[in-house]
Design brief:
Elements lengths: L2 H10 L4 H12 L5 H8 L1 H19 L3 H6 L12 H17 L3 E5 L10 E5 L2 E10 L7 H21 L5 E8 L10 H14 L6 E7 L2 E5 L4
Parallel strand pairs: 3-4, 4-5
Antiparallel strand pairs: 1-2, 2-3, 5-6
Helix pairs in contact: 1-2, 3-4, 4-6, 7-8
């Protein structure tokens, strides 16, 4: 769809006004962004998926949709090409944790003293999660790529465990948080999560959480 048609679709959608304004400016900037390309290719689908994600994540956090994206640290004046996708990846993690039965979820503010991106409770235990959004999984070396990424991101979540703010930790690695690209099958994603966990040496009390669009895998299972 051309730019004007995409902008009309944004204006007519049910997203919060601040986010619609942001998307309008973002689209006009001609940024080299996978989200922008997806919006121009199929705006109705992308916007519908974004609305659903904001609604479900907001309900899990007990916040209005406009506020939910702000608590990720998202700045409506930041037009870095992947910043919105990073915020949506955190909301996707919140949504998936709610589906797994987690409660008392908090998206923690960014800052020098912060430990993890998200804290949530399950079965009387507090978990700390870091979230990273990536463009794709390299087909020839996905396991090694994910292992290295996990090791970089888990440090923050481990701080929460060390400070006794949490008992268990994990890293969400998210591809396509709004679920518009072709996804890895559930079986492939489960197998990949298991391989990464094994390559890490099976760290006790930690979880590899892989997300590709609407598909997710957690290894080991949370319960």
């Amino acid at each position: 769809m051309n730019t004007e048609g995409t902008l009309r679709a944004v204006e007519d959608c049910g997203l919060p006004p601040e986010l619609k304004n942001y998307l309008g400016r973002f689209i006009r900037m001609e940024a080299d962004s996978s989200l922008r390309r997806a919006l121009k290719a199929d705006p109705a689908r992308v916007l519908k998926n974004m609305e659903a994600l904001l609604s479900s994540a907001s309900a899990a956090l007990g916040l209005p949709a406009g506020k939910a994206i702000s608590v990720t640290g998202f700045d409506y004046n930041n037009f870095t090409r992947d910043r919105l996708e990073a915020a949506l990846a955190e909301l996707r993690a919140v949504d998936l944790l709610a589906l797994e039965g987690f409660s008392d979820m908090k998206v923690l503010p960014a800052g020098a003293s912060r430990s993890a991106d998200i804290e949530a409770s399950l079965g009387g235990e507090v978990f700390a999660f870091e979230v990273r959004c990536v463009k794709s999984l390299p087909p020839e070396a996905a396991g090694e790529f994910l292992k290295e990424l996990y090791l970089k991101k888990i440090r923050q979540a481990r701080i929460s465990v060390k400070k006794k703010d949490a008992r268990r930790a994990g890293v969400f690695i998210v591809v396509d948080p709004v679920g518009v690209a072709g996804t890895v099958s559930a079986g492939e994603l489960r197998a990949l999560a298991g391989r990464v966990y094994g390559a890490l040496g099976g760290p006790a009390g930690e979880h590899v959480c892989l997300v590709s669009g609407g598909t997710a895998a957690f290894h080991p299972p949370f319960r």
